[in-house]
Amino acid sequence: MKIMAANSNLPLARAIAGYLELPLVDAAVRRFADEEIFVEIHENVRGQDMFVVQSTSYPANDNLMELLICIDALRRASAKRITAVVPYLGYARQDRKPGPRTPISAKLVANLITEAGADRVLAVDLHAGQIQGFFDIPTDNLYAAPVMAADIHARYAMRDLTVVSPDVGGVVRARSLAKRLDNAPLAIVDKRRDRPGESEVMNIIGEVRDRHCVLIDDIIDSGGTLCNAAQALMDAGAASVAAYITHGVLSGGAVARVKASALKELVITDSIRATEDAIGSECIRILTIAPLVGEAMRRIADESSVSSLFD
Ligand code: R5P
User: Fold this and answer.
1) Does the annotation mark 191 as catalytic?
2) Residues 208 and 296 in one domain
3) Which residue's CA lies nearest to atom 1 of ligand 1?
4) pLDDT in tens, 114-164
């Protein structure tokens, strides 16, 4: 196997290569003067089992295009098999038509990656499990849950802990983490607006008084969902609120919003390269998923079980 990296998350690609004790393929992914992307692979990859690592995070369109062009370069260089390793898949939230005459952009992105020449996809915590089915090629969806559960186990006394989903849509994800945490109790923040024009009311389903609450979600983008949920939990008498989120999108003023919020701590993974702001923030901690992704890549190359990573 050989690993190639595009530019969106070089620290993670290097950490994965370090875990696998392999060098990154000698390649240049650069821009022409007019910002067109140009890829040049400087070593032979003919007949190789190739893994190209690229999160399609901000700027999503540029990073997606880099991924597609890397795949095309590998295909034309006669790689035997190409796996697109996409720790964060941009556009995944556009996985259905929210209204008439709207696109399903996640499906379009899946088509583009497949058409470019990928033989397989490896992703982490896809926004919805069904996105696996948008790809007509084998797609492994890894879960950051074991990495998060190990960190939570090391920091909390399980008897005081409640796992919380910040919205009704995230209950399955939160329940699966709660199971890994000695079947910790589960609570749900149910956000609803009874009548149009009225402000949203946050109802808490489940017992949170005097509990240390851990909010679980796949994405923090503006931070609105999490910060509002954290406030609602504190108002309901929680002892503390922390959040474990796989993908730290952290757009706009999200880092400042988290700092000013009721959250004791935000824990994200390195699926997206963290900004200086996030790295410098004392309330944000970053867990690495490099060993998890690296091990899954090794197993794909060896044709052994990936799902048993989560047993
Ligand atoms: C939504 O379905 C996702 O799981 C996240 O809850 C959402 O993307 C978070 O967005 P924001 O941080 O902007 O509230």
Assistant:
1) yes
2) no
3) 219
4) 999 999 999 999 999 999 999 999 999 999 999 999 999 999 988 899 999
